[in-house]
Amino acid sequence: MKKYKVVNAFLFLFFGTTIVTFSQSSFGLLNAKKVSDIGKKSDERVRLDQDKPLPYEYVDERDILWSKVVWETIDLYQKPNFKLYYPVNDEDTSGTSKSLYANLLASIREGDITEVYEDSQFINKLPISEIEKKLVRIDTASYGYDLLNEGETNIDEYIDKNYIKSQDIQAYQVKGIWYFNKLTGQMNYRLLAIAPMAPDVQTIGRDDIEDDAIYPLFWIFYPDARNALHKAKPIKTGFVAHVESYDYVLNTRNFLSVITREENMFGNRSINEYVRGNSLFQLREAEKIKNDIRDLESDMWTY
């Protein structure tokens, strides 16, 4: 009996792996009527690819019994969040998937995402020129400066540009609102904003500066990014036959995060501002906020 189990397990792994490889490398093969159709999208596939994200429901403020705005950090080095991090090779254009950061940046540059701000309060809107400045460090060799002083204008070969890339993004901050809708009797979540976090571009690749801190590069008002992220797919992993969009992953909260701030009367201060110097206590405070939100829904039903 044990021998048969081993054989069955082997066959499952073999054929399971074959199915995934087949679906990735032979796109359109099952529906092809001739060899030239392999790799082409059918009319049905084109129609499905042109659909739009599921619209948010209209919520009347009079139906909201309770709400709380929270900020969370998604650590991309945690395994459940790898789908938001990989692939990190931005120069590789052979694959069909790009990292979340690469999709966001490309959509901003192409004008598909325009609601980009300096912070999560959506006060100062950032033009594309300001965004680009945040992502690059320009280093000029000393000999290049000498040539400039001599009147030379073309010193491109002495200029080194360092860009923030997908591999430099270590986390995302997200801002969202939890609310209890008395009309549906449910606790719901609405994602409001997202920000990629990376080290200061002036410190990346430099050994003479030690700075482990990471900062939000820019804040995107999330509803403006939904159409672009609905078309973007995370990398396919394991035995998954169908990959949902980045918009689906974020809206269904299919990620691991830690609450770092909540909206309150104290100026929405971060947890580390009032729980100082002890990471364990900060995590406990984050867990307490999360449990308070979870318990509130059951309390609403009780009363």
From the structure above, extract its key features.
alpha+beta; 9 strands; 303 residues; 2 domains; seven-stranded antiparallel sheet; 9 helices; two-stranded antiparallel ribbon; single chain; globular; disordered N terminus; 19% strand
Compact description:
The protein folds into 2 domains: 1-51, no CATH class; 62-127 and 165-302, no CATH class. It is built from 9 helices and 9 strands. It is 32% helix and 19% strand.
Structure description:
32% of the residues lie in helices and 19% in strands. The chain has 303 residues and is an alpha+beta fold. The protein folds into two domains: 1-51, no CATH class; 62-127 and 165-302, no CATH class. Strands 1, 2, 5, 6, 7, 8 and 9 form a seven-stranded antiparallel β-sheet that branches.
